[in-house]
Amino acid sequence: MCSILQLIKATTFLVAVTYAVHAQTSSDVIQNSQVLQAWKPKTTLSCFTEHELNGMRDTKKYESSYIECFKKAQDSRHLKEQKFAKQRFSIIESNKLLCAGLDYCNGKNSSADFFECHANFSSKVAKSGYDVSAISTEIFLNLTETFRTIEVDRENCYRISFDAHLKRINENVKKIIDCLQGKIKYPEYKATPDISSKLPVNKNSSAQKPEYIENQFEHLLKILNP
Asked: Which of 47, 151, 172, 194 is the right S-S partner for 179, CB 3.0 to 4.6 Å?
């Protein structure tokens, strides 16, 4: 059985495939953006950093909502199981009594006693079996419909969660394109030790493209062109 994380990964792959349709247009816009043409490292770093942060936040939201859908369905099933636990116990105990009665009759040494016991007890077995069958059929139909409704609700919950995830991805892509075109601005982020270690050592060359930004740019193009 697939785990929740495996299902999320599969759904995330579907998101990537969906956005591949818009890949060429988005790639062209980014490659011809005002910021990249002017090559403003700090501004570009801010664009990519914000894009990455938004992506991580969105992934966390999607995973949370997806797991919530699964847990809600699981809890609903559990409540139904608890509701009919008493009936299950009652039927089990009734069947135990019937089995004990049949074993009692089977233990008779005399053939006359054996058949007399079964003759008297069979009517009780038949009535009890009919009652168990009627109750079990009713509960079975009830549970079947209830579980079907729970599954429909779970699928709808997944769909709503997926659509919201898709919408946020679209908004995040649009934001980085707008940022790289200079339409919106984000606060400048100071490079972390890990990031700064990837920046070029030569500080006198202002025309040199920072390695971190270049990697981020290539990463985004890979996302847009899977």
From this structure: 47
